Amino acid sequence: MTNQFVWVSWNRHKKIYDAVLAAACALYLLCFVVGSFVFFDDRPDVMVMLIHATGTLAIILLHVILCIGPLNRLSHRFAPLLYNRRHLGVTMFLVALTHAGLVLLYYGGFGVVGPIHAVLFEGRSLTRLDAFPYELLGFAGLLVLFVMAATSHDFWLDTLSPRAWKGIHMAVYPAYGLLVAHVALGSLFDADGLIGRVLLAVGVAVVVTLHLTAGVRELICDASCWRPMPEEGNEKSGTGEWIEAGTVDDIPERGGRVVCLDGRERIAVFCYDGKVSAISNVCAHQNGPLGEGRIIDGCVTCPWHGYQYLPHNGQSPPPYHEKVPTYRVRVVNRTILLDPRPLPPGTPVEPAFFEAGPDDESLFEESGPLSDDSGPPPVAPHPPTSLSEGDE
Amino acid sequence: MMAEKPNRNRAFYVGYLPLPRAHAVFLLVAVPLSIAGMIVGALGLAGDQPAWGGGVWQTDQVNEWRGTLRLEPYPMLHVAGEDGEIETYLLVEMGKFGTRDRFAGADGLDGASVKIRGRRLHRDGRKMIELDPDDPKDPELGPAVSLLDGATPAVRAAMSMPGPRVTLRGEIVDSKCYLGAMKPGAGRGHKACATLCISGGIPPMLVSRDADGRAVYSLLAENTGVGLSDSDLAVIKPVIGEPVVLSGRPARVGSWRVLLVDRLDAQVDGASSASP
Amino acid sequence: MLVVMERIIWGIGVYLAVGVVFAAAFVAAGVGRVSPAARGSGWGFRLLIIPGTAIFWPLLAARWARPVIEPEESPPPVEPADEWVDPEKETAA
Fold it and tell me: Quick one: which of A204, A348, B21, B176 could link to A313 by a disulfide (CB 3.0–4.6 Å)?
């Protein structure tokens, strides 16, 4: 799918992202260690302190990761956090792995039985809460995170197919459930302190609320751009099976809008240079919403990771191979008509032409570098250096 | 039916293009705030940890003790203190192992005068020696324990007559971690480790509270004054690190208190049936 | 139940151990046959996919055993207008 795989294709944003992430993690661990010495009269056990520090850091990072998705649905201000979320996920897994490794070594090591048996099974019972193997919940959650971290590279997206990859990575939700239960039934179960309990409760509430809010907003948005599928042979207003998809005035120049079909995939409709094209709303990379993207350098650009497609054929410009389905369009009296049947990915479709109105000049004053090129060069100059490694 | 007019001037972020100003401004506020939140969270959660406990493990200091070795209820060394008081040290190995195996083969050790090398652990006046494994001088007894000649006077510390039956509510811990090998050496997080330690022969100890709330430490032993049998260890294993109620008769061995427990299988409610 | 879970964990361990052995060979020789975009890639990338290979090794082994897949040709350049599907002419897919 991509040109050639590299281990990490850094760019300036990713470097800053990772530097800030590493600094934040280091600062957290440092503050935790300092607090452990300052707030207690007795000297802390360094290993136990590190077990606590890494465990709390991992669950905090997991909450941040889970919030980024819905926050980005609610405001595009969060897009830079989404862009390199994969590195955040792998970092969280490594912190959690350190936590688990320290537990197995310190609590499970140096004894008559192996660490796995000692920590997860020895003297445990599923029927008594006091003896419940909460470590097993954490272990199961860690296994899920391992599968996700191990498949985070775009090689796996390519090898397993975006659909399967997305499915695997939706397992973050069961993992989250396991890990919240691990913390609630573990260190917080009979703890004296309140801070951990309050933070966990607030964290779960925030994650659930954000997901519900983003979901409801998505439903409302779908309803607002929803079009019924025309019935076979319905000659409504002489358009055959074509459906109305608003007017060209609804769509900003070199911007798009999403049309949601009855029980079908969403379609992204774009206006550019007096032309209208329609392609699938689903990015071939990670199913990002193309209709919320922009046309940059003549290409539809996904708002998630900047994957690009030519609007008239749904193909990524060379040397890339991604393709998305295209749709036939017509414009009648500035009303966009759309054939809802998708054409095979990458099928060229002639754009529909319309006369540019007074509103249709270049409109991205605020976005600086995007505002000055009004010509539509069909080849994107940017992606070749940046798409071959996992971006989310 | 029509969606509202799209916001035409919204900044659009692409990872490989320069950051739009609106995103930069937002990040300049949001990122420092998030990091400040993480610092506050780190300090708050650090302070929220359970108390470490006052155990001390002198890992950097190897000492020698001379005294009388007793093997029951658990291998221990009675040392005559300067003021005539007897100081009693439980003896354990490195790692999560007791010393029974070390002394099992040799006859005549019980009551013998010995010299012991090791590292001290102590908490609340309870003492323990982790035997030093690195002494090649006496391979038969193990490196850290050597017999003294017969002229050395024995420290007499027989077990006292047990008192009337008591019922204690507390937690069964492994004595080594609790005295300082691991902090905190009790509670839910330490359950796996305590179970492993006791399985390896570290003497099990009940930590309960007296009427004034002070900790009371009782080594668990059989009615006959010997250490817990394997079958009784199997009975307590599922409830180590949990709140339990145990009854038995208290006695003393040197400076240690021992609880001579009644039939454990009847006391530890459903433990064997609950064990996996 | 816990006994079963412990056996499952050991099973996962054995499965992953076999996977790691397979992964060593796969990243050295097989990955280029399975994915054209991985041909000629560096060791950083190859090391990075070892954990995933240890998980999905049966799938990758099956693909490795299949005949070599030639890389897809580059997508055709922008096509001339007369080859475009004309929405006015034919609407049947």
Answer: A348
